Amino acid sequence: MLTQWRDEMITGNHEIDGQHQELLRRVDDLLKGARAKKGSEEIGKLMWFLKKYVRRHFKDEEKIQLESGYPGYEAHKAQHEMFFREVLRLEALHAEQGENTLMIVAAVNAMCEWLRSHFKRMDMELIQFLQDNNITRPALDPDDLSEDSEDY
Question: What proportion of the chain, given as a percentage, has pLDDT over 90?
Answer without folding.
Answer: 24
